[in-house]
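Retro notes - structure team

What went well: the batch runner handled both jobs without manual restarts.
What didn't: labels got mixed up in the shared folder, which is why I'm recording both outputs here explicitly, each with its sequence directly above its tokens.

Job 1
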Amino acid sequence: MFTFLQAHPLISAITLILIELALWQLIGPSRRNLRMCVRVGIFVLFCWVMLSVGISPLQPPLWPEDPVLNLMATVLGIGWWLFAARVLTVILGNGLMSRAGRNARLLYDLMGAVIFLIGIIGAAAYVLQLPVKGLLATSGAMAIVIALAVQSTLSDLFSGIVINTTKPYQLGDQVSIDATQGKVVEIDWRSTHLITDMGAIAVVPNSVAAKARIINFSRPGDVQGVSVTITVPSSVRPRRVIDALEKTLRGTQALLPEFSTKVSIKSSHLEYTEYELKGFIALEQDKTEVCNLMFDLAHRHLEATGVSWDTDQDSQPWNRQRQLLEDVRIFRSLSNDERDRLAGEMTPVDYQANEVLLAFDEVADGLMIISTGVVSVSIHDGEKLLEAMRIGPGEVMGEEGVLAESPSRGEFRSITSGRFFRIEKAVLDNQLKHPGDLKSALSNLQDQRQGIRQAIVMQKPAQTKKSGLLHWLLQRR
């Protein structure tokens, strides 16, 4: 074996390199440490092969009279410098990736380029015995020419270094760069790749990103901001609108209570005024649903206070009771005459904040329709009351008692002051004695709320992991 290595060092070295490349592909990128150990081990064998035949990468070949040995030693010397550069790049890159992950990809590429450049210069100086100073001077002049030719590319390159160093965004962040919004899926030496809401890939040059106004929607990572804009006729007093919109925020259960919500006037015009509602939610994917809910709630609360977007004020001369019957879904099966008669039987009831409107297990003797305000609905899980939802204008309470004289499965407690209209059970007897659309609608509402109650009760709270000195001592008993 040793005789073969001495007789054929070039073949042995090439064989080692081929084995290394094959093992590098077979092991796979997920096992970085094993890859690094294999490459270092084969590099050690490569060094042993060179030393066994008397070849040193730090001096020119020793056989100038033998062209074959001289060429072989030159190839092995150059190969050693390149192999050493690759091994050093893998070792440093493995440590860098383990600490910073994929975000350090650009720095890893730049570091590898510098190391290989040093390896090429070392091979030229020690193996080929070239005048390195003159080579560096020539390469410096060429570098200036090339730099002028690729000025924009270099700008992207150095901007990428700045972005990777300052980290205004990372992979997976939702950002807006120069009015382009999307999720960061790749940051390379030239550009940042975003996947937009439409599923398209937007490529933003790093030089543009370094100069642009960047908005990172993923920081802080535990909350996501939401905002909606409502346009109201300027003839409506702002205080009246703000009160209604504040009730909208109170009625949006998805908004995180530990973060402040805000209603503000965004702009004022001759014909209309823009109001903005702001809050925070936990999940990015819930933004659209929460915004749609806030729009609907805002419309209902504004309508409950008498705000109208209809320029013809005489087109709907209904009072509030009649308007509620028109808007509430369960009464849509009734004819106009039936709704007119029912509106005359509705009794207004005012309530204050933090007042129990319908207690848990109480049998309601009438149907209650919320006109204004926000009401919290809580269910009992066997131990305590848990908030299940929040309801507002146009929502109904007491359907269990009206349908079958069943006790309420939830507690309805007011969050804000407001008013509801009460319809006595006797008034609805004619419609509820026989199967019909109204009875079916009330049954569907009851089933929906029962499903929500069961879903909340069946949810098991996540068990917290015990930690600390006491837990450590208990484990060792």
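Job 2
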Amino acid sequence: MLEGAWLYVLRCSDGSYYVGTTRSSLEIRIAQHNAGTFGGYTKSRRPVELVFSQWFDRITDAIENERKLKGWNRAKKEAFMRGDLASLQQLAKRKPMHPSRRPPAAGSSG
């Protein structure tokens, strides 16, 4: 069985969020981000600050949740990090499609 992993969220210097996973300690991983060890998203947005973390016993669960969170908008991420389930449920509801994107009504010419 694979070892567990951390799911973590960093707040970058520009106010954006970065979501990641690591098997190593969070302190080491954050230090690596702040040192610019990784050439990705956080390198040009340093310093970063840990704002959320959760341990998963299986790395596959951590990665699954990382992918889910990466697809969420800022408001949903913030509700999740606060543990605000009521807001998270409300934000998860689909919004009605903008009129310009709705398909034409049956029988209309268009």
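One thing worth noting from job 2: DSSP finds four helices and three strands in the chain.
We'll revisit the folder naming next retro.
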